[in-house]
Amino acid sequence: MGEMSEYIAGLEAPERDLVERMRAQAMSLVPEAVEGRSYGMPALRYRESPLVSVMSAKDHIGLYPFSPEVVSAVSGELDGYSWAKGTIRFTAEHPLPDSLVERIILLRRDEIDAAKAR
Questions:
Q1: Of 6, 18, 91, 115, which is the most buried if we count CB atoms within 10 A?
Q2: In whole angstroms, what is the distance from residue 56 CA to residue 16 CA?
Q3: What is residue 1's predicted lDDT score, i.e. its pLDDT?
Q4: Is the pLDDT of residue 92 over 70?
Q5: Under a CB-based contact definition with an 8 Å cutoff, are residues 20 and 8 in contact?
Q6: Which of 26, 44, 43, 51 lies closest to 113 in space, CA to CA?
Q7: Which CA distances in Å does 39 have to 19, 26, 36, 95, 103?
Q8: Domain limits of the chain?
Q9: Contact 26, 98 (CB under 8 A)
Q10: Whole-number Cα distances in Å, 40 to 1, 70, 99
Q11: What is the per-residue pLDDT across 47-73, written as a single tens digit (0 to 9) for each?
Q12: CATH 3.30.470.20 is the classification of domain 3-117
C-alpha cells in the first residue's frame, strides 16, 4: 500500500468511502500518478509533482490540488462550498460532483505537463 491508501484505510465511513472514490477517480484519470507525500500530506504525485490530496478534517474534507490557479479556474462552480486559494472544503453529506473533481484533476495534470514542457 502507498501513503494515500494507508491514510484512507485509517478513516471511518462515510469519509473513507468518499476519499477512496476520489483517489480512484484520480488514478483512473491519471494512471501514471503514484502515491506519495506532498507538503506533509498523503497525496498522489504525477511526474514528480504533487497532483492532488484529499484529507478528512474535523468538520470537513479538503481537496488540495496544490495550485491556486486550478482553484481559481473552478471557483465559479464552488457555490455552496468553502474554499481558499489552496483548498476546497466539502462534507460527505455535500460532496463535490464527480464532474468537478474530474475537471480539477485534469486541470492540475495539464498544469504539470505544461510546466514540465518548459
A1: 18
A2: 8
A3: 63
A4: yes
A5: yes
A6: 51
A7: 18, 19, 10, 24, 22
A8: 3-117
A9: no
A10: 18, 20, 27
A11: 999 999 999 999 999 999 999 999 999
A12: no
Do 93 and 64 contact (CB within 8 A), yes or no? no
Give yes or no for a contact between 101 and 22, defined as CB atoms under 8 angstroms apart.
Answer: yes
Which one-letter DSSP state was computed for residue 85? T
Q: Kindly tell me the sign of the dihedral angle through the C-alpha atoms of 83, 33, 114, 37.
A: positive
Single out the residue of 40, 32, 35 nearest to residue 2, CA to CA: 35
pTM, entire model: 0.95
Query: How far is Cα 2 from Cα 10, in angstroms, rounded to an integer?
Result: 13
All three cell numbers of 24, joined, read 480512484
Which residue stretches of the chain are H helix? 3-9, 15-29, 68-74, 98-117
